[in-house]
Amino acid sequence: MKNQKNKKIVIAHRGASGYLPEHTLPAKAMAYAMGADYLEQDIVLTKDDVPIVIHDIHLETVTDVALKFPKKKRNDGKYYVIDFTFKELQQLNVSERFDPETNEAVFPNRFPAFTSTFKLHSLQEEIEFIQELNKSTEKNIGIYPEIKDPEFHQKEGKDISKIVLEILNNYGYKTKNDPCILQCFDAQELKRIRNELKSELFLVQLMEFKTDEKLEEIAAYADGIGPWYKQIIKGKDKKGNWLISDLVEKAHKLHLKVHAYTFRADQLGDFSSFEDLLQVALYEANVDGVFTDFPDKAIGFVDKKYKN
Ligand code: CA
């Protein structure tokens, strides 16, 4: 059974993004069908306050915005989601992630860039998509939204957290018992979400690549942490054993869940295989969940361990 106590959870990072362009509904459908426990949504606001599901606050690394709206480029050379209405964004085609300087795909062995037809969509559209699938399949797959760059939104005069919380609430995501985990890198904002905006959702504090975060402080407002896995697995000792930091142990003492990012079968670093990486993270370092671009592989691995 999924979501059983102590069962490791698999979060589809931007959908099944190892196979289809990140954050597109086809990538979400694929991750859903693979049996991920949660599907991730990164959220950025449009000019007319529609939360859309996209990783960056700008558009030129995953869309053809430079071709369709060349005049909307800012001085830094980027095209910002916040400068476009939702209707304008619906005209764009989405591609596998690429380098806008060279047009080369970031992950050359994934779905080819500039192929087929993919579109942007709103948070509401994705929630409805998942909720309808939950009805027809009689499953209870969760959402895992991330509030992107609240400080940037604030400077542009927008309260992204307030807008997103209201939508989540309208779709029935209200408490820790609902299948929704809300994540953010900005600690001040996550604190505000708990204390000022009075959210009772399960909150995860994402962590940057340093390890001096004060876990006690985080535990006062959040339910979990989302560290980079290299904050936990620190390389090998002279004998070839993996060095594991005490971050997970400390977090667990404070009753914080640990969902580490990002597990990629096509970016293994010093690991001999994806299974090796998952084994060390999930069963030696004891993280509770993984964000992965390859949910099928992580689910297969966890299910195999769970049966044994
Ligand atoms: Ca994210």
Question: In the residues, how many domains can be counted?
Answer: 1
According to CATH, what is the topology?
TIM Barrel
Main sheet: strands, sense, barrel: 9 strands, mixed
What is the mean pLDDT? 95
Ligand inventory reads:
calcium ion
The strand count comes to 13
Tell me the CATH architecture.
Alpha-Beta Barrel
Distance separating the two termini: 14 Å
Q: Report the total helices.
A: 11
Shape: globular
Could you tell me the strand content as a percent range? 15-25%
Structural class computed from helices and strand pairing: alpha/beta
Q: What is the H/E order?
A: EHEEHHEEHEHHEHEHEEEHEHEH
Q: Helix share of residues?
A: 25-40%
CATH level 1 class label = Alpha Beta
Going by CATH, the homologous superfamily would be: Phosphatidylinositol (PI) phosphodiesterase
